[in-house]
Write a structure and sequence with these properties.
heterodimer, A: seven-stranded mixed β-sheet, four-stranded antiparallel β-sheet, B: six-stranded mixed β-sheet
């Protein structure tokens, strides 16, 4: 069972470059999320998609865009990468019910020079 | 004030002892509460969730919720060195999970 799959696992970018982080889930979940994790900061929500066709901003959306391509896939795009976006990015999925937990992918470690 | 607060630790306990991890939250409308374990360099994995006042037990783990005090805790009995990790408290608020900064637990043999 794959669960939540993120690609790539590692990436190094130069300031100003763009890239898209991919996320796919095979659990038929309605909701998907993107987080970033920085040392001592816990997980902070960037964007989420409560259901196919909807996206909403989270706590730290600036500098990012998202696309809910279909029920399985939710991508995160950095249009012009900045060193402050160096972080570990996690994608997660869940059912809509507030009592259902989120399941996480393995993460993408992104460094911006 | 952060919406979900945890002591960052590190919390150090000897092998076989009870580890007690605490979390407070600010939104009284919060509906459900989750504990995740995260090993260094890995993704968070779910340990427990609770949404009713009281205790919920699963093996060596017990989650405790007190909505009046806006407090949720995780007890780990018979702690093992393999329990050494960062424990993240997460609170569901309006369909979104708000995470605390995590508590680092170290279990010494």
């Amino acid at each position: 069972n794959a669960g939540v799959t993120q690609t790539p696992k590692f990436q190094v970018l130069k300031t100003g470059q763009s890239m898209t982080l991919q996320c796919a889930q095979d659990m038929n979940h309605n909701s998907m999320y993107w987080y970033r994790q920085d040392p001592g900061m816990g997980l902070r929500l960037i964007y989420y998609s409560a259901s196919e066709g909807t996206t909403d901003k989270g706590e730290v959306p600036n500098g990012y865009n998202v696309s809910r391509l279909n029920k399985r896939e939710f991508s995160l795009r950095l249009e012009s990468a900045a060193p402050s976006q160096t972080s570990v990015y996690f994608c997660a999925s869940s059912e809509i019910s507030p009592h259902q937990p989120q399941h996480f992918g393995d993460g993408t470690r992104l460094s911006i020079l | 004030q952060k919406e979900v607060e945890q002591n960052s630790g590190p919390l150090s306990v000897p092998e076989g002892a009870i580890a007690s991890l605490n979390c407070t939250y600010s939104d009284r409308g919060s509906q459900s509460f989750f504990w995740y374990r995260q090993y260094s360099g890995k993704s968070p994995e779910l340990i427990m969730f609770i949404y009713s006042n009281g205790d919920k037990e699963d093996g060596r783990f017990t989650a405790q919720l007190n909505k009046a005090s806006q407090y949720v805790s995780l007890l780990i009995r018979d702690s093992q060195p393999s329990d050494s990790a960062t424990y993240l408290c997460a609170v569901n608020q309006g369909g979104k999970l708000i995470f605390g900064q995590g508590t680092e637990l170290s279990v010494k043999p």
